[in-house]
Amino acid sequence: MAYKAMDIKMSYDFSKAVPPSNQKYKDYQAFLKKFGQDGNTVVVGFSTKQIANKEIFNKVATLQKSIRKARGVIGVLSMPTAINLLKNDSAQKFSAVNVFHPPYQDQAALDSDMAVFNSLLFYKDLLYNQRTDAYVMAVQLDTKLINSKARTEIIDGILRPITQFEEDTHISTHVSGLPYIRTRVSDKIAHELNWFLAGSFLLSAITLLLFFRSISAMLTSLAVVAMGVIWSMGTMVLLGYKITLLTALIPPLIVVIGIPNCIYFLNKYHSVYKVAENKNQAIVDMIGRMGIVTLFCNIAAAIGFAVFAFTSSDLLKEFGVVSGINIMLLFFISLIFIPAVLSYLGPPKPKHVRYLESKSLTNVLIKIERWTFLHTKYVYGVTLVLVVFSIMGILRMRSDAHVVDDLPQSDKIYTDLKWFESNFNGVMPLEVIIDTKKKDGLFRNLRTIEKIDRFSNYLDSQPAMAKPLSFVEALKFARQAFYNGDSSYYGVLTQFELPFMANYIKSANNQSQDSSAVKSSFGSMMHSFIDSSKQIARISVNMKDIGSAKLPSLLNRYQKKADQIFDTAHYKVTFTGSTVTFLEGSNYIIHGLQESIFWAFILIALAMLYLFQSFRILFCSLIPNIIPLLVTAGVMGWVGITIKPSTVLVFSVALGIAIDITIRFLINFKQELPKENNDVNNTLKQTINTTGISIIYTSLVLVAGFVIFCFSEFAGTRSLGWLTSLTLAVATFTNLVLLPVLIKTFSRKK
To answer: Where are the beta strands (DSSP E) in 100-170?
Structure first.
């Protein structure tokens, strides 16, 4: 499995969260088939009042050339590469020429070219913001490379000349765009997970060593968990899966499930050996008593995660399959490996079992007994307060996901994105597809062009939208060129002008197919923004990262406006793009996880009913598992943690932990009951004293393992750390205090 795990690869397909049956997924795939990839642009921005200074402008031109030479870059749209159209009356065609001619030796030459550039309204708010003296370069990347493992190298290749530019000019630059954000965030998460997984192992090792006072016990436990992690990675490779947003979290989950297995096995081994002083008997009793407990615990945990495999989302499906399989594999690893190792080791020494006589732990267990038998009303009272507090917090919860979720506001990725939102209204790609439902429908008359222009102007007026681009903007650019660059003529063609300009437009359209120098010119725009049948047009617009909560209402408002402008009988307007798909995927993950948790709870309840053959015990077992989930959700509501993919997974982990503790307590209770002549009170005391030690130790070790995640720079990872720790604390309380009280209460009413 280690050999196979070496072939593990990262997945760079961000649309896998959305099922193929989803309409937004279908719309996005239709767009890709028609127009190619979107969201493959990195933007580089800076603010300066000295752009017209020849030294500064030459540096900007040098930066543009250096970026263009970087691996994976297929084009750069910037001021130094701006194109102008010149009218040739004798040939009745436009000639595409460069506006600027760097490097400049003469300031007057730059001033002259700058005056021409400023008159070209096409570039206004696209390459520069006159109000804030902000300028931007749009770096187009090779789609295949930026969606491969080479993407980190590509982004680094772009950043190197940018760093040099900052050193040479002392001008601060800002970098953003979906490929940049995805690459940088993924790299940060991968780097953190590696360190935190190692740190989690280290803290768990230290805690295990402090408890068991045995290096062999510590190494055995860590070996079980390490094998589980390796097997999970190997399973992904064998199934043809790659590491995704969710499957990357499986290794920490293996730690969560694996460490308790080891602690309970070793605790039972030590407790039996302490009484019998016979190693072989202790191993046999350990397997006999804890084997069935661990089996059902792992079955319950596996069910909790495997239900994701029945969703229609590939992302959730892969997570469910891999986690479900490996949680069950972890049971067999524990059951076979731990007894085998113990059989080769010598019997435990007195110091190895001394933790069983811990005075502080004994005092805690004695207090738990008192609460169970003497303060039942207080236990119920505290539980009721917790439930009310939690429900009030749940009512405050809201669901919202952003492309830059979890990043601290001081992070450069976040601050750079906000710079672009302040100066250019965002960098998140949104595509508007206008289908005329007829071949050549875009050019049958000017009404369609006028409608597209009206809707583009509407989008441009929206605070969350940047300047839209479409073939209509190219026509407006051509109209200005037809009138010799007069900016007052930058507008939609009239019916009167169309016959005179037809040959010019056709010539520019044909010219772009042969000239690589006019990638950003009129003809390129025409080919990029209309399909070959001239039936469908696209409007490309960047937008702010407004989040998944606001996006649906925003798109609904835009759709209503589009339906007003475009006759729905003759036009079909669709909103799509990688931003819509990304946020739709986030919503789908959230809803999928919520639904899966519900079904997991039902299936686990059925499994526990089969195990204990008692509705009374089932009821007693469900309450201690519901409350930790309620408390976790309530705290999230009170402290303002939104439901998003990175936080909703906490509930799956919480359910697995709480169920694990409950099953271990109840099976131990069931095993001890005949020995105590069916005396419920004595059996509860015995169970609290025996199982309580394992539960407390397990909780402390897991808290130690999860605490390290609280030091992450990502809010989602921090939430996973401290919310899971909180859940552990509540689950320990409900299972050691509330569960015995419930059993005692309902036993009287038997």
So the answer is: 128-129, 134-141
